[in-house]
Design brief:
alpha/beta, Aconitase, domain 3, Aconitase, Domain 2, 3 domains, five-stranded parallel β-sheet, binds iron/sulfur cluster
Length: 456
């Protein structure tokens, strides 16, 4: 059996005629965007929550990242966040609203609080729920009506996806991070390459990554059309979870680890699809178009893919290099790259340097805990000295749903996960990259190969 099969089959409640299955859900994360309709559906039909203790609520998408102690000024954001707070009050669910010490991006707080653990089924009304798969669990995004189903029954009716294994072996070049690995894979397999599949990432390159770097990989698995991504748990996973607030303690933890150690694909397990890559082939990556599959190694030129619409939107032409392109904004944040390790990496690089004068450089921690830790480690001082602005936690410029938007026609090198038209605001031009590349771009004010700084 594959890791995926083991977890999935252990959660099947019953088979339904026609091949679909009823799957039990261990944990349901909710936020302000996809929960209001679900709550009102329950209220209208007078249906109680089936297991309210399985729900974790946080405000992230609509929150401002400045002056969080003040009332939200943007009317829609204010309404969304207040509705979440009211619904959680009405249904007696703890909610990590603005100012709460556990508030943050839903996919950042789950792992950091020890709620996300191997072998679980996890859902959230947000595509990037796949992030949690880094802990060896089945985690995937669901739609609003499914949010309501899970609230009412703790189950979902689903077709079992196909399985895919992506193996990466070998040592990475200097300056190449997990973000580059996943952008490289998506550029090779395309934005539809994982459609219908659940992906297991394997190989020694993946095993050698930290938990935070593994989260970046699983986070972006859905950008190749997959239902989700996962990585088999190992000692790094157990060490990461141990001692976290909601993790099992004492003998319960030991028993849990004994079970978690069984969660891996067996030798000879059959996957519907397999791909493998060599780590040494991967360079720092950038996207040049309007989906995450439109990516290139930084030293390559934009290919002629006949996608004139995307290139026109981005203001690029086939055959040109991105190196040297003037950039106006750098955004370091989102559930892909806003963890303490990302911030440390950026701080290490920018220490003693300054951002280019014309550029805005914004760093948005993924959670209150990340923000606190960054300050305790003095990273805030490094960012300030380099001219970077450290904001308060939230989804921020990952999507144009709050106050942090990129102006029309301007370029933003972003550590987020989507470069769709208008994703960071109407007309905004997004170039996806790693935190390290984004930091180097902020310093130079233009696109630059991070390896230039690391050769010595
Ligand atoms: S940071 Fe972006 S991708 Fe992640 S949950 Fe927020 S809006 Fe979604």
């Amino acid at each position: 059996m594959t890791l995926f099969d083991k977890i999935w089959d252990a959660h099947v409640v019953t088979q339904i005629k026609g091949g679909r299955q009823v799957l039990y859900i261990d944990r349901h994360f909710i936020h302000e965007v996809t929960s209001p309709q679900a709550f009102s559906g329950l209220k209208t039909r007078n249906i109680p929550l089936y297991r309210k203790e399985k729900i974790t609520a946080t405000a992230d998408h609509n929150v401002p990242t400045k002056n969080q102690h003040l009332p939200i000024t943007e009317p829609l954001s204010k309404k969304q966040v207040n509705t979440l707070l009211q619904n959680c009050k009405d249904f007696d669910i703890p909610c990590y609203g603005l100012g709460h010490e556990k508030q943050g991006i839903v996919h950042v707080i789950g792992p950091e609080l020890g709620i996300t653990r191997p072998g679980m089924t996890i859902v959230c009304g947000d595509s990037h729920t796949s992030t949690h798969g880094a802990f060896g669990c089945i985690a995937f995004g669901i739609g609003t009506s499914q949010v309501e189903q899970v609230m009412a029954s703790q189950c979902l009716i689903l077709n079992k996806p196909k399985t895919m294994r992506i193996t990466v072996n070998g040592a990475l070049q200097k300056g190449v991070t997990s973000k580059d690995i996943v952008l490289y894979i998506i550029s090779k397999l395309t934005a539809a390459g994982g459609t219908g599949h659940f992906i297991e990432f394997a190989g020694d390159t993946i095993q050698n990554l930290s938990m935070e770097a593994r989260m970046t990989i699983c986070n972006m698995s859905i950008e190749m059309g997959a239902r989700g991504g996962m990585i088999a748990p190992d000692q790094k996973t157990f060490d990461y979870i141990k001692g976290r607030e909601f993790a099992p303690k004492g003998i319960d933890f030991e028993n849990a680890v004994a079970h978690w150690k069984t969660l891996k694909s067996e030798d000879g397990a059959i996957f519907d699809t397999e791909h493998s890559f060599e780590a040494s082939d991967i360079s720092p990556m950038l996207t040049y178009g309007t989906n995450p599959g439109m990516g290139i190694k930084i030293e390559d030129s934009i290919p002629d893919t006949n996608n004139k619409k995307a290139l026109d939107y981005m203001g690029f032409s086939a055959g040109e290099s991105l190196i040297g392109k003037r950039i106006e904004h750098v955004f370091i944040g989102s559930c892909t790259n806003s963890r303490i390790e990302d911030l440390r990496q950026v701080a290490d690089f920018v220490k003693g340097k300054s951002k280019a004068q014309h550029i805005t450089a914004m760093i948005v921690p993924g959670s209150k805990k990340v923000e606190k830790q960054a300050k305790e480690e003095g990273l805030d001082k490094i960012f300030e000295a380099a001219g970077f602005e450290l904001r308060e936690p939230g989804c921020s410029a990952c999507l144009g749903m709050n106050e942090d938007k990129i102006p029309e026609g301007e370029y933003c090198v972003s550590t987020s996960n989507r470069n769709f038209e208008g994703r960071q605001g109407p007309g905004a031009r997004t170039i996806l990259a790693s935190p390290l590349t984004a930091a180097a771009v902020a310093v130079e004010g233009q696109i630059v190969d991070i390896r230039k700084f690391l050769s010595n």
